């Protein structure tokens, strides 16, 4: 559904542009053309994305996405990617509805959840973090979260790479719950050396 796009492509072109600038300036440093057009003021870059833009993008990629909701002041989207339900929360939103960052989140209810398994996940995974919560009915649930800072001036396609990371790690977490575990006890605590006084 989602394909990886390299966010590094602009970085590859930047050194070539920087190396060409001295040559351009040296060609005729004092010449100013009277007929040269005056550059228009740069248009201010948009900051962030709207929930509607993110929703339309996810639908285009094949997800089922409910209309944006605001619950207790928090705007969110409910998403189904074909196999799993999850949410996107919007933060740092301005008066026009553009939000500067988002958080992917999922609530996984399954047998075999334990603090040891959650801690092992957090030790081994860099991006998607989990915590254990107790539901009102007494069952345990894992809450997974992945925060993404949106880049100014980029359109909704900037969602591609973070969404791929989210989907891959969400699937890995769920598969890890299904796979047998060899956990018997928590690892021994790490003791840091202390300096003598």
Describe the structure in your own words.
- The protein is an alpha+beta fold.
- The chain is built from four helices and seven strands, in the order H-H-E-E-E-E-E-H-E-E-H.
- The protein has helices at 9-27, 51-60, 115-124, 160-178, and strands at residues 64-65, 69-71, 74-80, 85-93, 99-109, 129-134, 140-149.
- Strands 1, 2, 3, 4, 5, 6 and 7 form a seven-stranded antiparallel beta sheet that branches.
- It is elongated and about 55 Å long.
- Residues 2-27 and 181-193 have low confidence and may be disordered.
What is this structure, in a nutshell?
The chain is of the alpha+beta class and 197 residues long. It is built from 4 helices and 7 strands, in the order H-H-E-E-E-E-E-H-E-E-H. Strands 1, 2, 3, 4, 5, 6 and 7 form a 7-stranded antiparallel beta sheet that branches.
The coarse overall form would be: elongated
For the sheet with most strands, the description reads: 7 strands, antiparallel
Number of helices: 4
Intertermini distance: 59 Å
Structural class computed from helices and strand pairing: alpha+beta
Q: Which residues sit in consecutive blocks of at least 5 with pLDDT less than 50?
A: 2-27, 181-193
- Secondary-structure element order, as H and E? HHEEEEEHEEH
Radius of gyration: 24 Å
Assess the beta-strand content as a share of residues.
15-25%
Secondary structure: helix percent: 25-40%
Number of strands: 7
Mean pLDDT: 77
């Amino acid at each position: 559904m989602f394909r990886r796009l390299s966010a590094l492509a602009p970085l590859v072109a930047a050194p070539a542009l920087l190396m060409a600038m001295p040559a351009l300036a040296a060609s005729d440093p004092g010449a100013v053309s009277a007929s040269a057009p005056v550059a228009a003021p740069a248009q201010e870059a948009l900051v962030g994305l709207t929930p509607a833009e993110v929703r339309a993008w996810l639908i285009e990629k094949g997800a089922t996405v409910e209309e944006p909701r605001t619950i207790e002041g928090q705007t969110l989207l409910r998403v189904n990617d074909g196999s799993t339900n999850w949410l996107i929360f919007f933060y740092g939103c301005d008066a026009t509805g553009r939000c500067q960052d988002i958080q992917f989140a999922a609530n996984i209810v399954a047998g075999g959840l334990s603090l040891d398994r959650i801690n092992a996940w957090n030790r081994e995974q860099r991006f998607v973090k989990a915590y254990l919560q107790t539901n009102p009915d007494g069952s345990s649930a894992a809450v997974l979260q992945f925060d993404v800072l949106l880049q100014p001036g980029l359109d909704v396609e900037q969602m591609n790479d973070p969404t791929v990371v989210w989907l891959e790690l969400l699937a890995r977490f769920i598969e890890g719950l299904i796979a047998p575990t060899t956990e018997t006890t928590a690892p021994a605590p790490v003791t840091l050396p202390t300096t003598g006084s």
